[in-house]
Amino acid sequence: LISVAGSTIKLLPSILLSLLITFVTLYYMLVKGEELAFILEKYIPFSDKKRVVKELGQKTIGIVYGYFLIAIIDFTIAAIGFYISGVKYFILLPAIIGILAFIPGVGPGAVWVPLALYHFYINDYSGVLGIIITGLIISILIDTFLAAKLVGEKAKIHPYSSLLCHSRNFLSGIKPRPDPRLKISGMTLGP
């Protein structure tokens, strides 16, 4: 338990930096999108630059809105599951899970795994079971399969391509851990 807490504390600066970068990027994409498109247009090596910039902009907005929907679903399922499991902070922890939905390479496991370990440590075995079930539903069903479908639909990306971008959370528990940059580059270069 101490080693898990230590490794979580070591990851905290990285998570905070990722949060900062994510929110600054979201701000510029949503508020200053036209300015970014104008700058991007200068550097695109295609002849039909306007169409490419327009299509990239539409897909990017679709991806952002798709992730926003996933964050809301993650929060709702986590809040219900944690409440049923008897988690004391059943609103705060799902809010953190919702925020982490926007950060590539960091998932809800960063919250529910240490939470399950804590409840195991305090001998709350029914709570552990509920937390694990809730976490697996969010990590596998929502953040992998539903995210691929929702984000793919919103961004008009083929569901299979979208699933490949989102499968890191699911596959990392089964196969050797893929490069975490795969999800970041898949999200940004995929569209």
What can you see in these coordinates?
- The protein is mainly alpha-helical and 191 residues long.
- Helices cover 80% and strands 0% of the residues.
- It has helices spanning 2-31, 33-43, 49-85, 92-100, 109-121, 125-155, 159-166, 168-171, 181-189.
- It is elongated.
- The model is unreliable at 168-191 (pLDDT under 50).
Annotation keywords:
single chain, 191 residues, mainly alpha, 9 helices, 80% helix
Short description, anyone?
This protein is mostly helical. 80% of the residues lie in helices and 0% in strands.
Helices and strands in order, then pairings?
Elements: H1 2-31, H2 33-43, H3 49-85, H4 92-100, H5 109-121, H6 125-155, H7 159-166, H8 168-171, H9 181-189
Helix pairs in contact: 2-3, 3-4, 3-6, 4-5, 5-6, 6-7, 7-9
- Largest sheet, strands/sense/barrel: none
Mean pLDDT over the full residue set: 77
Ranges where pLDDT stays below 50 over 5 or more residues in a row are 168-191
Beta-strand residue percentage: under 5%
**In angstroms, what is the radius of gyration?**
18 Å
Overall form: elongated
- How much helicity do the residues have? over 70%
The rounded distance between the terminal residues' Cα atoms is: 41 Å
Total strands: 0
Order of helices and strands: HHHHHHHHH
- Structural category is mainly alpha
In DSSP terms, counting alpha (H) and pi (I) runs of 4 or more, how many helices? 9
